[in-house]
Structure prediction request, 709 residues.
Amino acid sequence: MDTRKDIPEDLRRKFRPSDWIAAQSIRLVAVASLFTIFLILLFVVKEALPVFNGGAHRAAQLAAETKAAQSSSVADKSESYGDAPAVSSAPESYGDAAPSTSSALPASAAKDSYAPPSASLGSAPAASSPDDPYGTPSVASEAAATPAASEETKAPAPFRFLDLFSFHWDPVSTEAPSFGIWPLILGSLKVTLVALLFAAPIGILAALYTTTFAPKWAREILKPVIEILAGIPSVVVGFFALMILASLLQTVFGLEYRLNSIVGGLGLALCVIPIVYTLSEDAINAVPKYLTEGSLALGATKWETNFLVVLPAATPGIFAALLLGLGRAFGETMIVLMATGNAALLDASLTNPVRTLSASIGAEMAEVVQGDLHYSVLFFLGMVLFAFSFALNAIAEFYVRERLMKRFKGM
Amino acid sequence: MKKKFIGTFAMGITAASALIAVLAVVWILGTVGWYGASSISWEFLTQSPKEGMTGGGIFPCIVGTSILVLLMSVVGVPVGTVTAIYLSEYVDRSSIVAKWVRFAVNTLAGIPSIVFGLFGLGFFVRFGGGGLDAILHGGTLHWAQPNILWASLTMALLTLPVVIVSVEEALRNVPQELRSASLALGATRWETIWKVVLPNCTTGILTGVILAISRGAGEVAPILFTGVAYFLPNLPHGLDSQFMHMGYHVYVMATQSSDVEGTRGIQYATTFVLLALTFALNFSAVYLRAQLRKRSLQ
Prediction:
């Protein structure tokens, strides 16, 4: 401030309104664009709110039901193109010549899972069109049944928040819809586990190869090719898993269900590998060169240096890469929607069909009445996904980065 | 001897992992290319679906996807660019604000795409559209329905981090000397940005646009309930109409169409077109970025 006094008046930095306006509007846009995160959280929570207090939702549901009865033609139209909710408990199989799955759930699966009372379990009603092998007929029958049922013949027990933590997911049952999210969470976890089981070693080791062992020409091929993998749209990966991987796995291992959590997990792994690879590569590249040189100077071989010095030094970054890959796998929708069979079973088997949180939202949202309880529950699932990805990001961002900094400073 | 064997083995598994990743790419591209190229034709690209979706082409899907990414870019790119300018030119890199803003960008990038779809439905369709209807149409249902405008806005939000990150990288590559020289000549900060910095990173901004478009063309989850439709007899005629989309077309044709087996050719061919489009975009982005890096090194 003292030096400013020495500067002549006409050379001092002046206040210029245009510059100030530009700065302020840029700041405004930037803050607004980042404020959308809160907006997203706010509106997902707002739409999920009826889940938390059952009382308010009753009124909304009654209103929605009368509305649905009035506009039943609209409802019919909207439900006619989707079959997902009705088959929520029966495995879907769109593939070529699936032998067992399109008819009914075999007794084994029905035993160790729950057996919902809805018509979707194979016993297709007479209304079914003969050319449709996938269980769509039950939608037609339910769509016809819904307006009739909504005329206050039923008085279901009021929904409580804790009902969300029961063990059945059967949202479209006409007599007693149940919204237990455990099967969905378990499904998401199973698929994510399979995905990471494949993606983590491949991604990390490929990154180690690229940064350390690989000759220059291999490096120049590898990086762009794996970037290509990142650029493939998830719906294409899902289509590939549905068409090719599913048939291959079924033929090779003789699986009972064509679409299951392993197929979905493998599809997800294709999406997660580029993430793990790119971030691990950054982490390995960030390891100071003097560590490598010191290790080699002490007489360690190249592989000893890379595996026992470089890789451990990069652990925090690799851990962050795995966390972000995990978040991606947990929230990915199209791949699991297409390749996992979408049956909300509660069992530990990886070869059974699964239904994940994200796939439930994707498959059911188009069919629900807006403002309905089911609608709110789907937003609640979105909240869970949001919270999960947010937590993973926060851990990766703050905890891991801090540790990384500390580690390299301490060395 | 034994040590050497372990060394070869250790290197072998890393090389094998890399090879698996490469083979996966080749496998996907090969399959889609093989089956897709055989059933693609000029008619397929220029006709509407016929015979109850079992014949004809995907022209409406191509148009719908194009309009979607166009609207998305018109909204998302300016906002993303301005945010990147703020981050790079106005905020100190090591400050607390920068740290939190970066966290916000990363979080936004990490939110599952289906949650964006939910947000689009809750905010744009129900809140925004409902509000518009209450004002303009006296409460009758018009804007509070899924349409291409809401889908584009949702997609713009989803691709915002992509734009921010790549524009910021481009801004960082502009030499500091240019800014200092401009400021020393008496230009204001805004003049420096507008007349010196931005003209020097048009390539970077273009890269961001292309990457965002490639992402937006491929994502399906956010538009599932904000505007996409299975089949429409007409092309979109306004912001309030629904649209068809290539990715969604692949999804419904492969899982919910009335004749899944008979339309394999259409499914593969649509996948092929979608893949070709995203690839063309991605490759041009990679090329532009390489040019950019080359220039900044000089």
